C-alpha cells in the first residue's frame, strides 16, 4: 500500500529527512513517533504528493508520486495537525462543501456526510457552527472530512495533539475502528503511550533519520533483555515458586502479592514447556502471562543518546 525508497528532502545543506524507508501493507496502523521537527510532517506531505522530495521514491498502491499524483490523491486522506474551519458554516454544511469538491453529488452527498458524522460520533453536532466545536470535536470533524471520498490510505498528522484525556480515548478508539475497516493508516505523534495499543508497526524518527522501523512486538523485544512471567496458581504459591526456581530456564523467582514473578534466563524465549511442567506437577494455573514492555519505555531505551547526534 505504501512504500518509500531512499526518500530524502533537503533545504540547502540541511536534511529534513534522509533515506526514509517504509513498507506498509493494507490494514497496517503505523505509529510515526518523534519530536517536533524530526521529519514526520515532511514525510507525510511527500506521500500525499503535497511536497516533492529532493531524491528517492514513494509509492501508494503501486502508484509513483512522480507519475501518478492525481491517482494517489484519490486514494489518500490527509489531515494536518491544525486546519481551519469556516466560521459561518454549520458542521453538515462544512462536510457538504468538501463532498462537492470530491464530486459527490445529488442525494448521495447528504447521505455520505451523515454517514461520516456517525462514524466519528459527531452526528449530534450536525447543525452546530463549525467554529463552536471543541478541539476534540474539531479533530473528529477533520477526520470525517478526509473520509468523505472513502480513501484507502489515511495520513493523520498529530491527531491527538491538544486533546483532553477523554477526547484522546475517543480518538484512539476511532483510529482502532478505522484500522479494523482495512484502512492503511500513518499516524504521527510524540505522545508515546497513546499509540502503544492501537499500532501494529512503529517508526521512530529523529533529525530526519529513521532509527527504528519495525513491528511493535519486535520493538518491545529489542528493549527487553529477558522475558518476565507473571504466574498465579489456585493454591500453594510457594510450592509452585520452588518448582519454577528449580527449572533450568528460570533465572530468578519472586512472590509479589500471591503472584509469582519469574525472570527467565538470557536467550530463553520459548516458555510453553514451563507451563506444562507446572500443570503436570498438579498445580491449577489461574494466570500465566508474559510481562509487557510499554512503548514509552521502548522509546526511551532505543533512543538513548540520539539527541547527541551531529
Indicate the proportion of strand residues. Answer: 25-35%
Main sheet strand line-up:
6-7-8-3-9-10
What do the pLDDT scores average to? 88
What coarse outline follows from CA principal-axis ratios? globular
Low-confidence stretches are none
Query: What is the CATH T-level topology of the largest domain?
Result: Rossmann fold
Task: Please outline the major beta sheet.
Answer: 6 strands, mixed
| SSE order | EEEHEEHEHHHEHEHEEHEHEEHEH
User: Any guess at the CATH architecture of the largest domain?
Assistant: 3-Layer(aba) Sandwich
CATH superfamily of the largest domain: P-loop containing nucleotide triphosphate hydrolases
Task: Give me the oligomer status.
Answer: single chain
> How many β-strands, per DSSP?
14
Binned, the helix content reads 25-40%
Number of continuous helical runs: 11
CATH class category name of the largest domain: Alpha Beta
The tally of domains stands at 2
Given helix and strand content, the structural type is alpha/beta
From the N-terminal CA to the C-terminal CA, the straight-line distance is 33 Å
Any idea what the radius of gyration is? 24 Å
